[in-house]
């Protein structure tokens, strides 16, 4: 392929994507395919001869798109958002076009330095303490990781290394392997599965502590867990606090957990994967009160901040904690030699190679500005509140817990089975996509504003479909109850007649 064909191929691909988003409402949010459909459509072996780019796009539109779940459909309300914007798509294109691998400064100076710039920009917008920023006088700074899962594991590994170093410095006779076997990590039972997996991958016991009635991990619970484990000869090492839990978007009180971690020399990592984006709006920063106690903080710009996956923004109070844990030297990997505070990011992450991810974050922040990003967040929250109002207006439904950010959880009053059946039926019809969660032992449905394109009319369309399905289910349930009641009445009469005889 030459540059002329590249221009034609690229322009045609952009036209397909632009048309896809312009007409996305014409599609069902879920595809009508069976498992194995694409496996059967594709050839078993790679093409021996080159194909025209037109054939590639033909297969994309005829085979790939029909099997795609449309995450940016206005009626996609499952999980949490995954970010997208035209600005981010272009930023990704520029990154892929340059094709650099920025493992150290000399490998691509702009790749490293733009990441420093954008992480400073974003950290300031979020209202993070100055010591977390690269522009501070201290050793803190930010890095773009691949995901919140990765950031949680990076934090755990750094915390493990730091704890072992500290204990051996205090007592050189200690065996590092003995210390490792005693280290314990803690989080809420409402945590994302990736937090629990970090314990598995990092070979550290991860205790899932019971949250309170509102889904929050309280300070007293954490303190008691520390005390119990210390009494058993174990060593508290790492705590993951959740700002916006996966199930109900609950916020752990950092102002309670932080002082306990600090008193016990335990690393506090803040997982704000989804809700962290809202902190660019000053009115929501109350939810991260106590963040000054954190050793690391992570939020996914690729969830709610219009940046395409992958772009997980992680800040640490002391970059040397990461360097000490991950520094492996080779003669061909010289570190940057300068008096300026410029990190070699290969020491701040698990992989060696890294993409030029900051280009898409930079493209979005330049194109939207802080004002545009705040407007986006506030609009989503406003739409969620509108949906909650619609649900609360129908006496058959319960909204619980109270809506949080762009998430609304609800259920039918008449029982778990009806709520499950309603969700199953809606999913089968593919017009609206939601997933379930549990709250106080009850089955609930999670409804989240996910798409950049969702409007008030789209919200009302989703509610119309939900309400229609509830009408059918509740009518059927009423009919079944009526039949049961009639049968019971007949049986009661029959028993009475038998007794009379």
From TrEMBL:
Record keywords: Lyase, Pyridoxal phosphate
N6-(pyridoxal phosphate)lysine: residues bearing it: 303
Cofactor or coenzyme needed: pyridoxal 5'-phosphate
Keyword Lyase found: yes
GO molecular function annotations of the record: aromatic-L-amino-acid decarboxylase activity; pyridoxal phosphate binding
UniProt keyword annotation of Hydrolase present: no
Gene3D superfamilies membership: Aspartate Aminotransferase, domain 1, dopa decarboxylase, N-terminal domain, Type I PLP-dependent aspartate aminotransferase-like (Major domain)
Gene Ontology CC, one term: cytoplasm
One Pfam family from the record: Pyridoxal_deC
One biological process term in Gene Ontology: catecholamine metabolic process
Family: Belongs to the group II decarboxylase family.
PANTHER family (UniProt xref): 3,4-DIHYDROXYPHENYLACETALDEHYDE SYNTHASE, GROUP II PYRIDOXAL-5-PHOSPHATE DECARBOXYLASE
Full protein name: Alpha-methyldopa hypersensitive protein
Organism: Papilio machaon
